Amino acid sequence: MTTAGDIMHRGAQWIPATETLDRAAQMMREMDVGALPISDSNERMCGMLTDRDIVVGCIAAGHDPSRTTAGDMAQGTPRWVTTDSDVSDALQQMQGHQIRRLPVIDENKRLVGMISEADLAGHLPEGQLARWAEDVYAMP
């Protein structure tokens, strides 16, 4: 059985809910990523922040990214898998909720990695990857 821990990329980092979006953008640039999980004060996931959220939800809406926090942008129910989850569970989460990046947590509920499209492309057979993309990118 291939697990989420087998295909994730390590080194993912939280952005605290209290951190500003300008700092979030700097972190994304430094880590060369397009999304950060948002953590509450107990380092529990309370949302996801994407580069698109910053641009469309903050800047294009006329808000100041130096005054808007990651927590202000947190919406919906966060999704994740554990390191020992079967890859099929990760795919189900991503397909069912049309998400492109999925945080991976360990047994202590600490963030240890992320599964992205690139991770899937490197580990899934072509047909399975095509089905995943079809489901994730389908218009609701």
Structure description:
This protein is α/β, with parallel strands linked by helices. The protein has a single domain (4-137), classed as Roll (CBS-domain), CATH 3.10.580. It is 41% helix and 19% strand. The chain contains seven helices and seven strands; from the N terminus they run αββαββααβαββαα. The strands form two sheets. The chain has a four-stranded mixed β-sheet with strand order 1-7-6-5. Strands 2-3-4 form a three-stranded mixed β-sheet. Strand 2 (15-16), helix 2 (21-31) and strand 3 (35-39) form a beta-alpha-beta unit. The mean pLDDT is 91.
Secondary structure topology:
Elements: H1 4-7, E1 9-10, E2 15-16, H2 21-31, E3 35-39, E4 45-50, H3 51-59, H4 70-73, E5 81-82, H5 87-97, E6 102-105, E7 111-115, H6 117-123, H7 126-137
Parallel strand pairs: 2-3, 5-6
Antiparallel strand pairs: 1-7, 3-4, 6-7
Notable traits:
140 residues, alpha/beta, four-stranded mixed sheet, three-stranded mixed sheet, 7 helices, globular
In short:
The chain contains seven helices and seven strands; from the N terminus they run H-E-E-H-E-E-H-H-E-H-E-E-H-H.
CATH superfamily: CBS-domain
The portion of residues assigned to helices is 40-55%
Strand order, largest beta sheet: 1-7-6-5
Broad shape: globular
Return the CATH architecture. Answer: Roll
Average predicted confidence as pLDDT? 91
**Biggest sheet features:** 4 strands, mixed
Low-confidence stretches: none
Number of strand segments = 7
Provide the gyration radius in Å: 15 Å
Tell me the span between the first and last alpha carbons: 31 Å
Strand content: 15-25%
Q: Total helix count? A: 7
Instruction: Spell out the helices and strands N to C.
Output: HEEHEEHHEHEEHH
Number of domains: 1
